[in-house]
Amino acid sequence: MKKAVGYIRVSTSEQALEGISLDNQKAKINAYCQLHDLDLTEVIEDAGKSGKNLNREGVEALLAKIRRKEIEAVIVYKLDRLSRKVIDTLTLIETFEKAEISFHSLNEKIDTSTAMGRFFLNITASLAQMERDLISERTRDALQLKIANKQRAGQIPFGWRLSEDGNTLRPHQKEQEVIGLARELQGRGISYRSICEALAKAGYRPQGRAWHPQTVKNILKRIA
Question: What is the reported pTM?
Fold first, then answer.
């Protein structure tokens, strides 16, 4: 029997979701290993951790076991438990393959010990990334439309104030003057540091103790 390790993860926002709890993932992995004659030696978990990157204690523990050649298979309940980014997922899969470790994802029925399983893994990971990118695009477009209509969209941007209706934004005269001057100077090729000096010299109140180049850059980037 192959020595296997299960990996389970749930983010803070997902902890209450039915079907994706740590206990549910662990039970599914246990059942899978019994069915496929895999010796499940341990289930490593990352509780309350996002899948946006690989900076997780559980992932580090998993990689340490691989370096010590303690396991022959890695099992997850769902592909995005490993990572929500295609590049991170494929990087880990490459690490598994180099160590001759098979990877199994229950939800997508992936088993990289077969050629078809490896092919399907690449397709599934790419489709998942595309879906997340489309969601991000739709969210960004919706926020930009709100801003264009002078509606509140998250944090109130520099140069604006929230109107009494609690929804639309109204321009703040002094801050709009800051934006106008900063854009004019930027158009003339003036550096952000020099723009900071010009704003201070003109008597405009800074955000914080003093105008900072990064602050000016962020303001202009948001306007653009």
Answer: 0.54
